[in-house]
């Protein structure tokens, strides 16, 4: 059978608009969303740029992007205020006037009626679209998007709020592109999430897979102690993505907690619910972050019973029952204290598992023996308790974020190990799907 040649990947450029992006006050989340979603589907995202709230600059950027790319995705500047100029810039490059879009106007009116407020006149600006462009319904916000052709490029103008932008990429842009732009080659991508290990340790185990020039691209990134391995193949290499993902999972063993991108807290809640187990947290330096991350998912109460933010020693002794003698002898950041915290919170809440964190988050309070970033973590169940000691570099927010994720991961490892009593350690990786774009 002759191999069908793979089509060329359509080129995508992404434009973010807003002075707050250009000044650096807001990080460009919309580029990330567009690059991930379209990249996963086989499009060649060449890059993105941000433009200030300036009509000339916006029109120029639109023209340039459309001259180079098959697809241009613009975000922001569709609201009702004077600095929302995307409609005007599009009208200028198309050489057409703005017109009132009746359906959008009715949507806006009914939205304001629901709020029980009169609609300000300026709101109507949101219902103005450049003549001849196609309206894109925004089901999660009020500013509609629109699309048009500029030269050979399909241009999509989407609202700026990241939640709205992401929803419209998925619901409107991705399906329409299959019709409006050249078809991308087939593409597949997969992700593997790890915690409790460094990025370099993951990188060493995957070094040969990560070498540049391989048909399947494997890369890592790290955020707050979570190492994400991204695996992507386009064209014929798409067929190899599943096998590479399995090889990554095999090499990472118990360090990988999910075959998808999912925060450790959400993953643990699902794991605990599936096993009918409950957990409670005793937190010192994380100040409630573990509890917050274990309640991100609706329905978390099935797995997370509650927690104690035991910041002062008096709360460690008075509420959690940590013996004062332990605190005096070993200090609050120590193995005996973190173990007593984990046992204590389990006892007072009646949870199956207790998890505890105590450490020096910084910037002050460090000593030579217990520097900033020095953290003790523990997990306890009916049968016993296990503590680990870690040292991280970074500021207060970083140390706290990594500590919370690592505490959650400690419980995850505990639960996965316990699932086969006396038997070999279970891998316990949720088998996520390989994202399949096409073909
Ligand atoms: P609105 O109707 O809310 O005014 P809009 O389409 O006019 O929406 P903007 O005014 O540009 O969009 O931005 C709305 C909000 O979304 C702002 O808080 C802005 O900082 C944020 N935002 C816009 N673009 C981005 C981006 N690329 N990354 C992250 N946040 C963004
Ligand atoms: Mg706006």
| Sheet with most strands: strand arrangement | 2-1-3-8-7-6
Radius of gyration: 26 Å
Helical segment count = 15
DSSP strand tally: 18
Categorize the overall geometry: globular
- N-to-C CA distance: 16 Å
Mean pLDDT, to the nearest integer, reads 92
Strand composition percent: 15-25%
Largest sheet: 6 strands, mixed
The structure class reads alpha/beta
The low-confidence parts are 419-431
| Hetero ligands | adenosine-5'-triphosphate, magnesium ion
Helix content: 25-40%
Task: Itemize the secondary structure elements and their pairings.
Layout: E1 11-17, H1 19-22, H2 29-40, E2 44-51, H3 55-68, E3 71-75, H4 86-94, E4 98-100, H5 102-115, E5 128-130, E6 134-136, E7 145-150, E8 153-158, H6 162-180, E9 187-195, H7 199-205, H8 207-210, E10 217-223, E11 226-234, H9 241-252, E12 256-258, H10 264-275, E13 279-283, H11 289-293, E14 304-309, H12 313-318, H13 324-330, H14 335-349, E15 353-359, E16 374-380, E17 385-391, H15 396-418, E18 435-436
Parallel strand pairs: 1-2, 1-3, 3-8, 13-14, 13-15
Antiparallel strand pairs: 4-5, 6-7, 7-8, 9-11, 9-12, 9-18, 10-11, 15-16, 16-17
Adenosine-5'-triphosphate (ATP) binds near residues 17, 18, 30, 78 and 143.
Task: Give short descriptive properties of this protein.
439 residues, alpha/beta, 6-stranded mixed sheet, binds adenosine-5'-triphosphate, binds magnesium ion
Descriptive account of the structure:
By secondary structure, this protein is α/β, with parallel strands linked by helices. It has 15 helices and 18 strands. It has helices at residues 19-22, 29-40, 55-68, 86-94, 102-115, 162-180, 199-205, 207-210, 241-252, 264-275, 289-293, 313-318, 324-330, 335-349, 396-418, and strands spanning 11-17, 44-51, 71-75, 98-100, 128-130, 134-136, 145-150, 153-158, 187-195, 217-223, 226-234, 256-258, 279-283, 304-309, 353-359, 374-380, 385-391, 435-436. A six-stranded mixed sheet has the order 2-1-3-8-7-6, sandwiched between helices. Helix 2 (29-40) runs parallel beside helix 6, helix 3 (55-68) packs across helix 4 and helix 10 runs parallel beside helix 15 (396-418). The chain is globular and about 80 Å long. Bound molecules: adenosine-5'-triphosphate and magnesium ion. Adenosine-5'-triphosphate binds at residues 16-18, 20-21, 26, 28-30, 75-79, 84, 143, 159-162.
């Amino acid at each position: 059978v002759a191999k069908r040649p793979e089509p060329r990947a359509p080129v995508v450029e992404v434009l973010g608009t807003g002075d707050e992006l250009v000044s650096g006050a807001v990080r460009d989340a919309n580029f990330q969303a567009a690059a991930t979603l379209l990249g996963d589907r086989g499009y060649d995202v060449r890059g993105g740029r941000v433009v200030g709230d300036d009509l000339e600059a916006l029109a120029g950027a639109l023209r340039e992007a459309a001259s180079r790319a098959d697809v241009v995705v613009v975000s922001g500047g569709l609201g009702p205020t004077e600095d929302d100029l995307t409609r005007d810039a599009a009208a200028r490059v198309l050489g057409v006037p703005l017109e009132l879009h009746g359906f959008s106007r009715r949507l806006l009116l009914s939205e304001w009626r629901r709020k029980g407020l009169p609609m300000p006149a300026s709101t109507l600006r949101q219902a103005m679209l450049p003549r001849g462009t196609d309206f894109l319904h925004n089901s999660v916000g009020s500013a509609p998007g629109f699309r048009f052709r500029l030269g050979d490029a399909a241009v999509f103008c989407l609202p700026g709020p990241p939640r709205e932008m992401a929803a419209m990429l998925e619901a409107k842009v991705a399906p329409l592109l299959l019709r409006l732009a050249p078809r991308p080659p087939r593409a597949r991508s997969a992700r593997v999430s790890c915690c409790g290990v460094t990025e370099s340790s993951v990188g060493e185990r995957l070094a040969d897979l990560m070498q540049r020039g391989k048909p399947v691209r494997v890369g890592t990134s790290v955020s707050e102690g979570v190492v994400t391995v991204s695996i992507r193949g386009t064209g014929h290499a798409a067929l190899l993505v599943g096998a590479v993902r399995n090889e990554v999972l095999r090499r990472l063993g118990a360090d990988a907690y999910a075959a998808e991108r999912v925060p450790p807290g959400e993953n643990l809640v699902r794991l605990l619910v599936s096993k009918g187990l409950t957990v409670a947290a005793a937190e010192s330096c994380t100040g409630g972050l573990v509890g917050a991350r274990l309640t991100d998912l609706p329905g978390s109460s099935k797995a997370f019973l509650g927690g104690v933010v035991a910041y002062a020693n008096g709360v460690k002794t008075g509420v959690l029952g940590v013996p004062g003698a332990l605190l005096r002898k070993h200090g609050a950041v120590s193995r005996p204290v973190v173990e007593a915290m984990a046992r204590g919170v389990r006892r007072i809440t009646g949870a199956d598992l207790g998890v505890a964190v105590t450490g020096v988050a910084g910037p002050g309070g460090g000593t030579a023996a217990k520097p900033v970033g020095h953290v003790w973590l523990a997990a306890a169940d009916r049968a016993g308790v296990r503590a680990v000691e870690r040292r991280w570099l970074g500021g207060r927010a970083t140390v706290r974020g990594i500590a919370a994720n690592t505490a959650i991961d400690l419980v995850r490892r505990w639960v996965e190990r316990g699932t086969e009593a006396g038997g070999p350690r279970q891998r316990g990786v949720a088998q996520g799907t390989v994202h399949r774009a096409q073909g």
